[in-house]
Amino acid sequence: MASEPVVTRSHECTSREPCRLNGFCGRNLSEMADEIVAQHHSYLRRELPRLKQLLDRAVLESGGRGAELRVLKETFDQFFPEVLMHMDREEQILFPLIHELHLAQTQPGVYGGGLDAVMVQLQHDHTLIDSAMTRFRNLTDNYKPAVGACPPYREFVAALPALEAEFGVHTIKEDRYLFPRARACQTALLNSGDSVQPLLGRSLPLRLGNRGLT
Ligand SMILES: [Fe+2]
Ligand SMILES: [Fe+2]
After folding, report:
1. Can you list the positions of beta strands (E) in the chain?
2. Fewer Cβ atoms within 10 A, N terminus or C terminus of the chain?
3. For the whole model, what pTM was predicted?
């Protein structure tokens, strides 16, 4: 049976830069998934509704004037539910698979497979989220609110750099560490000869492929 430390060493801290992730890469798969939910998903579930309220107030206060604000609101109104759905997919589909994968290293037969297709979709979502953040930056001229912008609009724009930075760390943790390590762990499990039975009863409870961010 494959043990996780072997997988861990082969994928750990490949970056030459000092670790900015507070020991994230030293955690096991289950701990990584839990940390992402506790730190990054909870941040987004608090922050995105606040930003939406600010933008709605800005639109009301501006009386619908301002092309930049209108486009920003349209973009955010697509982005907000997509990010929530993305996190639901991770929490309800991917992370339970990752917990199974972690358990399967000591309990053969626990993991039922299915990681790859889900991760491909989620990594595509990451690309779309990144594109949306670039649009926010461009629409606000690098996070500078328009001259004479109302207070809620200024507050919204002022919060965007922190949102972008937070997404950056969140996505690095998933794309650079958690997802590759989970793939490697699955491969090690398959190569070890442990049975990985597809869970035929497993259905994807959330629609994958809503492409509102494109
Ligand atoms: Fe996430
Ligand atoms: Fe993600």
Report:
1. none
2. C
3. 0.82
